[in-house]
Description:
heterodimer; A: alpha+beta; 4-stranded mixed beta sheet; 6 helices; B: 3 strands; elongated
Amino acid sequence: xxxxxxxxxxxxTVTSNPxxxxxxxxxxxxxxxxxxxxxxxLNYMGVDYADVDxxxxxxxxxxxxxxSDWPTIPQLYVKGEFVGGCDIITEMxxxxxLDQLFEQNGIAYDxxxxxxxxxxxxxx
Amino acid sequence: xxxxxxxxSRLEEAFAPHRLEVEDQSEMHRGHAGYQEGGESHWHVxxxxxxxxxxxxxxRHRAVHAALGxxxxxxxxxxxxxxxx
Lengths: 124, 85
């Protein structure tokens, strides 16, 4: 598969699914702590999202880094836009910005679950 | 120069931060992907600089990645960032 094909495939994935997480492993069995943290947040918040395991495809693993000009995995996309990696998603979850982003884009999520995550991390 | 010093000096030079902490957290990831004997694989950086004022989260992270350069970014396995003004 050429790089162009990987890019086309990525574009197709992020535009045809409202929320996509490129990760190591999958949403039920993450293979990396950073991927696990972001998948855990989305799972807990009950977000319906597509998961792409970059460990299954070397072209996608490199291609997604080129696509977003971002050097690391995981990467979260909402409505085709790159949102961030583990640090940014963690910060946005705790600040409530992730809730806002989902609301602005009509993505369903469990508001109580999001509030519980913030409650549990309130001492920070 | 150690990896820690290399990371510090590039960030000092690029952002003149008023707060900078560079921590090798490799031991926390012993046995995980990317871990190597001797550490220096997983890093956590806390940086605060007025240079980040008005930048989005993504832009701040990109600025730090760029300041570290492809050589350092290519040598380390993971970089966790806490960036503020």
